[in-house]
Structures are given as C-alpha cells and as structure tokens.
C-alpha cells in the first residue's frame, strides 16, 4: 500500500540546511495500522506530507495506494485520505454542508454527496451537530468532523497527522473508538503520526520510531519492548551490602543490562522478566542475600526510545541538527 525508497527532504532555513527526513525506506501492507512515533521535529509530518503529495521530496521515490506520488499525484490523492494537524472545515460553514461540498470536490454527484454526508454524520456520531457551523464544535467534535471529511471518498488508505493532539482523554478515546470501528468495517490501511506513547502502544500493530529524520526502529510494540528495552526486575534487600552483592549476581544474569544497586534496592533489565525472576531469586538465596520484595515492571515505548537514543521521548524536545 505504501512503498518508499530513499525518501528525503531538506529545507534551507536562514542559509542552513535542515535534513528533515533522510533516506526513508517504508513498506506498509494493505490493512496495516502503523504509527510513526518520534519527538518534535523528528520528521513525522514532513514524511507524511511527502507521501500525501503535499510536499515534493528532495530525493527518493514513493508509491502510495498503487500510484507514484511524483508522476501521478492526482491518482494518489483520489485513493487516500489525509487528515492534517489543522482543522479541515471552514469556521462558518455548517457541518453537513462541508461534508457535501467535500463530496462534490471529489466528483460525487449531488444526491450521492448528500447520502454520503448522512452516512458519515451517523458513523462519527455527528448527526445532532449537522446544522451547526464547524467553528462552534468542541475540539473532539471538530476532530471527528475532520475524520469524516477525510473519508468522504472512501479512501483505501488514511493518513492521520497527530489525530488526537490537544484532546482530553475522553475525546481521545471516543475518537479512537470511531477510527477503529471504521477501519474494521472498511479494511482501510491507516498510517498515523503521534506523540502519545500509550496511543501508539495500544492502537498500532506496528510502530516506526523516527528521530532526526531517520527511522531507528520498526516492529510491533511488543517486539520493540521485548527486544530493545526488556522488563525491569526490582528487588529490595535488607541493606546496602546485600544490594551490592545482589548487583554483582545480577550482572551475571544472561541478557541483563542497566544493572543498578542503590540503597537497599537492586534493579536490572532483562528479556522475559517473569521467567528470569525465580532463577535470580534462587541465586540470591544461594549467595545468602535475603530478598524482601520483588517485582517485574513491563517496559513502555519510552523505555525503547531511551534505549535507542539515550533520551526520553516524554521530555525530548527538538534538538538542532547534529546535536
Ligand atoms: N517548511 C519548512 N521549512 C523549514 N523547515 C521545516 C519546514 N517543515 C519542517 N521543517 C523542519 O523539518 C524538521 C522536521 O519537521 P516535522 O514537522 O516533519 O517534524 P515532526 O516530527 O512532525 O514534529 P512535530 O511532532 O512537532 O509535528 C524540523 O526541524 C522542522 O523545523
């Protein structure tokens, strides 16, 4: 559904070159739900804008929904939906009318445009708001209208640029409920960007992590967490001396990394923590170290980002090129 090779985009800003996206190779199959995750300025929106024909690449090629984005931008646009970061509807236009106009723009006959508008109002729970000007909707309602506008022409592939940014948790959950249901009904492929780690983790079957314009990881959230971060085992002992000894034993555990012994607590990361913990506790006991509490913490995608870059995605703001 999406095949990109060596896609790159440079910008000249005040005499300096910003490498917004570098050498992006991408293959997304029909029906996949892929999340592009990365800090501010990583290159997510720029990648999406190139794949949706809104921005010409500086280098590379891409086929999207069977069309070459460079030689057949019109064909690409007909087959995809794109919901950008800004609101798609005009402030003063009524919700229903905006949907009908969008249908007409895509070449739907008048009657079909009205029928499709009605269908989408129902599907996105906007029926009671049909006569309201778009500018009077709440953030969550507005975002649902954006999604409806992006779906008017029944695209096989939907691009969503930070669909839930700025929404409260309830509106986010509600929006996702609608997106996932529509996807189930239509088998649509979805490619989205997000800052929200929990969103990427729970919604996407595949997560691509991008940093400084480069994809640095691409796998299911489960595999990324297991392979790159691992579970954190934390054991409290009777005192600092025991924790030190436990730390030395922890370093011998296969796959152990990030081993720390602080105060009376020892902590380590391992693959499959629940399988490793009993054996680790037996080793401690054999060495005369008494474990008082033990727990296995599951990793997050932030732990994955930290393992890959040494930075936390939560705090990671855009850093200048080469930093
Ligand atoms: N039109 C432009 N002119 C100059 N620089 C740009 C332009 N668009 C993007 N950039 C730069 O390219 C880099 C990537 O930006 P992009 O918007 O793709 O990042 P992003 O990962 O989507 O960030 P965010 O999460 O903040 O939306 C940034 O350094 C940004 O400042």
From TrEMBL:
Gene3D superfamilies, A to Z: P-loop containing nucleotide triphosphate hydrolases
One Pfam family from the UniProt entry?
ABC_tran
Localization per Swiss-Prot or TrEMBL: Cell membrane
Q: Tell me the ranges covered by the ABC transporter domain, including all copies.
A: 2-237
The answer to whether UniProt assigns keyword Transcription regulation to this entry is no
Q: Kindly give the InterPro entries that the UniProt entry links to this protein.
A: AAA+_ATPase, ABC_transporter-like_ATP-bd, ABC_transporter-like_CS, ABC_transporter_ATP-binding, DrrA1/2-like_C, P-loop_NTPase
Extract one GO molecular function annotation from the record. Answer: ATP binding
Q: What is its main location?
A: membrane
Topology in the lipid bilayer? Peripheral membrane protein
SMART domains in alphabetical order: AAA (SM00382)
Which residue spans adopt a coiled-coil conformation according to this UniProt entry?
none
The reply to whether ATP-binding figures as a keyword in the UniProt entry is yes
The protein's UniProt keywords, in alphabetical order, are: Antibiotic resistance, ATP-binding, Nucleotide-binding, Transport
Protein name in UniProt: ABC-2 type transport system ATP-binding protein
Q: Could you tell me which species this protein originates from? A: Streptosporangium brasiliense
């Amino acid at each position: 559904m999406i095949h990109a090779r060596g896609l790159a985009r440079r910008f000249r800003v005040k005499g300096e070159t910003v490498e917004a996206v570098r050498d992006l190779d991408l293959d997304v199959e029909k029906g996949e739900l892929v999340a592009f995750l990365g800090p501010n300025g990583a290159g997510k929106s720029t990648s999406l804008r190139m794949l949706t024909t809104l921005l010409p690449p500086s280098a590379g090629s891409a086929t999207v929904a069977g069309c070459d984005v460079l030689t057949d931008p019109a064909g690409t646009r007909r087959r995809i939906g794109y919901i950008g970061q800004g609101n798609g509807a005009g402030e003063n236009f009524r919700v229903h009318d905006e949907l009908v106009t969008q249908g007409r723009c895509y070449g739907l006959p008048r009657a079909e445009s009205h029928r499709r508008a009605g269908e989408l109002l129902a599907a996105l729970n906007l029926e009671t708001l049909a006569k309201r000007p778009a500018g009077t909707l709440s953030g969550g309602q507005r975002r649902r209208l954006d999604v409806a506008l992006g779906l008017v022409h029944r695209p096989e592939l939907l691009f969503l640029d930070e669909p839930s940014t700025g929404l409260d948790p309830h509106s986010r959950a509600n929006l996702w409920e609608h997106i996932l249901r529509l996807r189930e009904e239509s088998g649509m492929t979805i490619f989205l960007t997000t800052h929200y780690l929990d969103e990427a983790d729970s919604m996407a079957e595949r997560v691509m992590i991008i940093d400084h314009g480069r994809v640095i990881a691409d796998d299911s959230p489960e595999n990324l967490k297991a392979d790159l971060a691992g579970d954190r085992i934390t054991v409290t002992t009777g005192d600092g001396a025991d924790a030190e000894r436990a730390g030395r034993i922890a370093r011998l555990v296969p796959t152990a990394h990030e081993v720390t012994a602080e105060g009376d607590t020892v902590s380590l990361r391992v693959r499959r923590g629940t399988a490793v913990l009993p054996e680790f506790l037996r080793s401690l006991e054999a060495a005369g170290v008494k474990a008082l509490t033990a727990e296995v913490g599951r990793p997050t995608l932030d732990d994955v980002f930290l393992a890959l870059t040494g930075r936390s995605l939560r705090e990671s703001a855009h850093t200048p090129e080469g930093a």
